[in-house]
Amino acid sequence: MKKDLSNIKKAKYLLDKNHCVAIPTETVYGLAANAYSNQATSKIYKLKKRPKSNPLIVHYSNLKDLEKDCVINDNFQKLYKKFCPGPITFVLKLKRESKISRNVTNGKKTLAVRFPKNAVTINLLSHLKYPLAAPSANIYTQLSPVSKKDVEEEFGNKIKLILNGGNSRIGLESTIVNLVNKPQVLRLGGIDIKKISKVLKKKLNYTKNRSIKVPGQSKFHYSPGIPIRLNVKTCFHDEAFVLIQKRKKFDRNHFYLSKNKNLKEVGKNLYKTLRKIKKLKFKKIAVEEIPNIGLGQAINDRLKRASKS
Ligand code: AMP
Ligand code: MG
Fold it and tell me: Is the CB of 54 inside a 6 Å radius of any atom of ligand 1?
């Protein structure tokens, strides 16, 4: 895999001029812009066709920069130490003196922040004088991209540069934890709630907090735009059949997410497989039952939303 270190200068040049650049992360690829600039961040919403009411996650490469924008607390320190950089997003209190654009927060006094784990993106961040606001690099409600090629398919030549950082290692969005008051999980994702609970020494549940607008919580999302049946044992001949494990007898319409039911592998291959099925122009998808444990909860969450239309 060729990492795109040579293009970092070009990315910095474009970002400094308030353009958007797609960046690789371990969760999914992001559509990034200067988080301090109104002009740059409004381009993200326009390109994605994302409603302005949905706030963006801001990406940092170090704590010192984060402290310019957010109030950090003990729970944050514990989780940061254990999981960062990694697939976890924290909602923190925004500092009054922060320069974060209002477009990013939708005028809220809180900010969602993350420390991505990808050498190319970490390198890029270390050269910038501002953090990067970056939602997933897909059109609103569509499948998230997990490779440079996926981003090209989403946006064509509408974005000037897509940095290549290989396939996203996790392949699912980050877990979002609200740490402003009592910790709450707002979105299931790359890190299992149980692991977070263990670090905080208190049992966290996934709460759908209606007072905070989180599109990761909206019912229809992550969609390949094709009807999906879930928890299926057998499929119809005209359906793409998504299996959790490779089978001995393997038909043309079979797609497996893992060789041997490894949930990490299932997560990594989910969007990639759904995208492939879409390209093959299947009209229907059937998905085998996925165990609702650990990462399986986040995978089932995405599939449930993808199946709503
Ligand atoms: P995406 O970047 O598309 O994966 O989505 C980013 C997620 O972070 C969305 O679900 C946002 O609503 C959520 N988010 C961003 N800022 C905040 C915030 N201040 N409070 C709660 N959720 C947030
Ligand atoms: Mg998204």
Answer: yes
Q: What residue spans in the chain does CATH classification 3.40.50 cover?
A: 228-307
- Please work out whether the CB of residue 140 comes within 6 Å of at least one atom of ligand 1: no
Top-level class of domain 2-200: alpha beta
Of 130-139, 208-217, 281-290, which gets the smallest average pLDDT?
A: 208-217
Name residue, tokens 């020494």.
201
CATH pick for 228-307 out of 3.90.350, 3.30.40, 3.40.50, 3.40.190? 3.40.50
Q: Which ligand has the shortest distance to the CA of 222?
A: 2
Which residue's CA is minimally distant from atom 17 of ligand 1? 112
- By CB neighbour count within 10 A (0-12 exposed, 13-18 middle, 19+ buried), where does 229 fall? middle
Q: Is the CB of 186 under 6 A from ligand 1?
A: yes
Helix (H, G, I), strand (E, B) or coil at 37: coil
Kindly tell me if the per-residue pLDDT of 66 is higher than 50: yes
Give pTM, 2 decimals.
Answer: 0.94
What percentage of the chain reaches a pLDDT higher than 90?
Answer: 87
